Amino acid sequence: MQYIDYVTLEDLRVLAEKRGDYCISLYLPTRRKSKETRQNQIRLKNLLGKAEQELVRLGVRQVDAGQFLEPARTLLAEAPFWQHQSDGLALFISPAGMRQFRLPIPFEETVIIGDRFHLKPLLALFNRDGRFYVLALSQNEVRLFQCTRHSASEIQVDGMPKNLADALKYDSVEQQIQFHTRTAGIKAVGGGAKGRRPAMFHGQGGGTDDEKDWLIQYFLQIDKNLQKVLSHDQAPLVLAGVDFLFPIYREVNSYNYLMDKGVEGNPEILKPEELQQNAWKLVEPHFAKAQQDAVEKFNREFGTGLASNDIKTIVRAAANGRVDSLFVTIGKQVWGFYNPRNEQVHVHEHEETGDDDLLDVAAIQTVLHDGTVFAVKEEEIPGGSSIAANFRY
Hints:
alpha+beta, Translation, Eukaryotic Peptide Chain Release Factor Subunit 1, Chain A, Nucleotidyltransferase, domain 5, CATH 3.30.1330, five-stranded mixed beta sheet, four-stranded antiparallel beta sheet, 12 helices
């Protein structure tokens, strides 16, 4: 079974487009410490029991409901799965199968069954008011972390080189021979020559031109593999490493949202929480300014047709890719449904059969069309409503 520790924009798109009679969205907080991980399995077992009861209430036979949830119940016996948890677990179950994500969000325990998945709890990973990445670089290792204001979770990237030596062994034969030839004669402290070991470069200047070329080859591979995770993202990326590596990495970087400043020092000796805390100091002003700029734009353009706090107008605009920045209230639902055929939006005072949370609909569509979402307290939303938006046109 594949265990996924991050959600990409494409994952969100696939989940958002899924429709069916019984789409189950299940969220729970999880414990990281080994002594407390048993609580994770108990929580999941209890939530699956609630999901089964709800399926039966909706008219599904008891035996069919049990079979429907069987892929999730198999997780209860997956010991490796529970040994490496993040802060939250999200499961999405439909007749077509199940997808599971271990994520750095301490979700509230939630079970929702409808004709589409409930995705608003995932938006913390796509809000540009608190989500960022840290790339910890050294010649001995490379690590990528997805971070929020309060957490850090390491992402395992397929194909990422483990270190400098690992990267160079995949280069051409000529480069490989050159690397081993030059490192074969390096003397160890207090000893003789070491044969064919990874080169270690020290000093503020980054070493010779050859050493810089090796680093460039290493960083090119890192950048290429990062695109598997970041190609459709716009969250800030912070480098962490010895300062002389920064300008070399910037030469090959292709990600448009790399921060100008980085966390200086040896990242190998820092825990993920320490990297996250140091990086947060660099990105916090960026997030604060982005939100304030969006508020000022709303106040300036409200009433001109380029800003609105009307949920019907905003849902239609989001579905058509017109929303540039969106404010939605945390922990609140506005029930109704949107018909894409005639673009009609219906709002209900209370939840009715077939309803969606329209705040969720607007937020997901904004993210899928590369807009910015600020999930905030209601008093922080401009315009005195539960939702507000700035339009592109």
